[in-house]
Amino acid sequence: MRILILGGDGYLGWPTAMYFSHRGHDVTVVDNYFRRNACTELDVGMLYPLPTLQERAKIWHELTGHEIKVVIGDLTDPEIMRSLFNGRVVYQWAVNPEFTGIPDTVMHYAEQPSAPYSLLNYKYANITLSNNLLVTNNLVFALRDLAPEAHVVHIGTMGEYGTPNIDIEEGWLEIEHKGRKDKFLFPRQAGSLYHTTKIMDTDLMWFGVRMWNLRITDLMQGPVYGIETDESVIDDRLKTIFNYDEIFGTVVNRFITQAIVGYPLTVYGKGGQTRGYLNIKDTLQCVDKSAQTPARPGELRIFNQIMETFSVLELAELTRTVGRKHGHEVHIKSIDNPRKEAEEHYYNPAYQGLQDIGVTPHFLTEEVMEGMFRVVGKYKDNIRKDVIFRGVKW
């Protein structure tokens, strides 16, 4: 397949690029270094320095012989988006800088991914809204005009649903009202402006599907944990970006980092917030299986992309257990919840669909977490305690 990855420098985008390239697909990645630049601007910690995207692609080619074409550009510019489909693209790195044709599959990761970032203040809220919605809208129109047969795999979020007091279905809900029935998108109730933009993404894509017969798979992803994939272990320079701060770090990654440097695990309130989680390797499986079994023209196919559920307190206790086995003195500290969210709630999402198309789950066992402790521990001296928690409130 010809695979186009929007947001190819990110925590999930770069591993996805290597994954598909390793399997012989024609891969192009696009990024504008938003995540890296935001980390610099906000002075938050990355666990280790990263080569540029061009350098990464060159290292990958030298080690494997496979090419990942690189485009550096801002996808809120509609002409840059359209260049990826009309052949006018300019590559910043490529072995063979020729346009090889309209992509078969588009992986859409190109969004500001942080709830705390979106609520730092009105400036960052505006950045989140403008970036996320313009990129998705530009993609939908490029597909309509230039590539209506291409299949989009979009990374949504389970945070779109919130925590309703009913079971969460996979994207859709059948309603009976006054003797009539119909099927609607499952009701959404986001807990941040970031998650609100993801709801709007779904609505924009659903519009494109209904009006223009586009084919889109929307993956409602839970928080991801992990640092290594089968491709990244080839060379340390191929590791993905790893944040441990409150703004860009996901909870399991943050807890492990906190445990290693003796920082009390930051449990918000009672820690009863329950969510669905998955290993970074399962993200790769999910996008792969989705690409192999694309949505039909005129279909918005939605999967809930999680493998198991945990409360925050359960994750903290698992981290403490594993950390103490490795000689770390791990403490759990309940702090006032800076977020407006239910700390105790019903949570029962369906998530069978991805397994039905061939995904085999990895579960968060003590052994898996021990592996993460070993990797993060190598970079202990890089960890800055001052960036771990700043108390972004909303």
Structural account:
This protein has 394 residues and is of the alpha/beta class. It has a single domain (2-387), classed as Rossmann fold. 36% of the residues lie in helices and 19% in strands. It contains twelve helices and 14 strands. It has helices at residues 13-22, 34-42, 53-64, 78-86, 115-118, 122-146, 193-212, 251-260, 280-292, 312-325, 353-356, 366-377, and strands spanning 2-6, 26-31, 68-72, 105-108, 151-157, 172-177, 180-185, 215-221, 224-225, 265-268, 274-279, 299-305, 308-311, 332-335. The strands form four sheets. It has a seven-stranded parallel β-sheet, with helices on both faces. A hairpin with a 2-residue loop joins strand 6 (172-177) and strand 7 (180-185).
Structure at a glance:
By secondary structure, the protein is an alpha/beta fold. It contains 12 helices and 14 strands.
The CATH class designation is Alpha Beta
Number of self-contained structural domains:
1
User: What structural class do the secondary elements suggest?
Assistant: alpha/beta
The number of distinct helices, counting runs of at least 4 residues, comes to 12
Keywords:
19% strand; Rossmann fold; alpha/beta; seven-stranded parallel sheet; three-stranded mixed sheet
Write the topology of this structure.
Layout: E1 2-6, H1 13-22, E2 26-31, H2 34-42, H3 53-64, E3 68-72, H4 78-86, E4 105-108, H5 115-118, H6 122-146, E5 151-157, E6 172-177, E7 180-185, H7 193-212, E8 215-221, E9 224-225, H8 251-260, E10 265-268, E11 274-279, H9 280-292, E12 299-305, E13 308-311, H10 312-325, E14 332-335, H11 353-356, H12 366-377
Helix pairs in contact: 1-9, 4-6, 6-7, 8-10, 8-12, 10-12
